[in-house]
Design goal:
Layout: H1 5-34, H2 37-59, H3 62-85, E1 107-108, E2 111-112, H4 116-128, H5 149-160, E3 168-172, H6 179-192, E4 197-201, H7 202-212, H8 217-229, E5 232-238, H9 246-261, E6 266-270, H10 274-289, E7 295-299
Parallel strand pairs: 3-6, 3-7, 4-5, 5-6
Antiparallel strand pairs: 1-2
Helix pairs in contact: 1-4, 2-3, 5-6, 7-9, 8-9, 9-10
The structure holds zinc ion.
Residues 99, 101-102, 113, 115 line the site of zinc ion.
Length: 309
């Protein structure tokens, strides 16, 4: 997904904070060691031995090289002894970064590190002011021999093609039928494949929309960009809010159109029937949700395992 400037700045700030935290611990220990004159002495001895080694190598002076190597070894031993005398282990002096690959810079060479999407996802969720959900997993979903086995298999295939699929999927079913659970499994699979997912309840969506009412068009666009640009958007329990204001209808339509234009997938779960969705959200929004060839409407029977055959 593309990120707005504000989001990118927040992501950078998150990395900067992580680096500062990892380094601060090491700096504190270094300050302690630098107060010990034995440490400073050994430290300087190591550095000057390193310099002598480089010089001897440059001059091709074997005798000096041997001597300097001995001095380096001795210096390192002294350094280790002083560090140990403070109860510090050498690994305490290496910053303990959250990500060992990029050392909390977000970059692996000139590419984004694989930790980037996780950080970005956290930032996006925070910016929207919604909670980050812990998502279930297809691996632990017990759907075999249930009435919804076919649906699960179909949706698992859909999720396995994260990054290629662009359909709008509406999961219809009664309360407790496991729509949210299935949507969660799909979202989780997308995340596992390094995609940015926003999983938002209809209720949360409504408060996000309400916050945009005081914004100018451009600001609103930026604010909603996390919803229009993320790799997968899940709107959970559409219809449960039932108090949509005008601004909400406009926002919802904006998001659906943008995602449709950009060929980005959407998952909606709802207790409402297709007819009820048309009645409440109107033709404009509903026709986006149920465009022939670009959308799927799937009925969930319910994960009643007692009905196992
Ligand atoms: Zn990383």
């Amino acid at each position: 997904m593309r990120y707005g400037n504000q989001t990118l700045r927040a992501i950078d700030e998150r990395y900067r904070r992580a680096r500062t935290l990892a380094k601060a611990k090491v700096e504190k220990l270094n300050a302690l060691l630098n107060d010990d004159e034995n440490y400073v002495k050994a430290y300087n001895a190591v550095n000057s031995a390193k310099f002598e080694i480089a010089k001897a190598k440059f001059n091709g002076d074997e005798t000096s090289l041997l001597k300097a190597n001995e001095a380096l070894e001795k210096g390192n031993e002294q350094l280790d002894a002083v560090i140990k005398s403070h109860g510090i282990s050498p690994k305490d002096l290496i910053p303990d970064y959250n990500c060992k690959i990029c050392e909390d810079t977000g970059f692996n060479g000139d590419k984004r590190c694989k930790c980037f999407n996780k950080i970005a996802s956290e930032v996006v969720t925070e910016e929207l002011g919604i909670s980050k959900k812990s998502l279930p997993d297809f691996e632990h979903a017990d759907y075999i021999n249930t009435p919804d086995e076919k649906v699960y298999l179909k949706m698992r295939q859909f999720a396995d093609k994260a990054g290629e699929v662009n359909k709008f999927v509406t999961l219809l079913g009664k309360v407790g039928s496991g729509k949210t659970y299935l949507a969660g499994c799909i979202a989780n699979q997308f995340e596992k494949m390094g995609k940015i997912v926003v999983f938002i309840s209809s209720y949360e969506l409504q408060s996000v929309f309400a916050r945009t009412s005081s914004l100018y068009d451009l600001e609103r666009e930026g604010y909603l960009s996390a919803l229009t640009e993320c790799d997968l958007l899940v709107i959970d329990d559409l219809g449960s809010e039932m108090t949509f204001k005008n601004v909400s209808f406009t926002c919802l339509y904006t998001i659906l159109s943008a995602r449709s234009d950009k060929n980005l997938p959407l998952i909606v779960t709802t207790n409402l029937s297709v007819d009820e969705i048309y009645d409440f959200y109107g033709e404009r929004i509903s026709s986006r949700l149920f465009t022939k060839g670009k959308s799927l409407a799937i009925e969930i029977n319910g994960r009643d395992f007692r009905r196992k055959r």
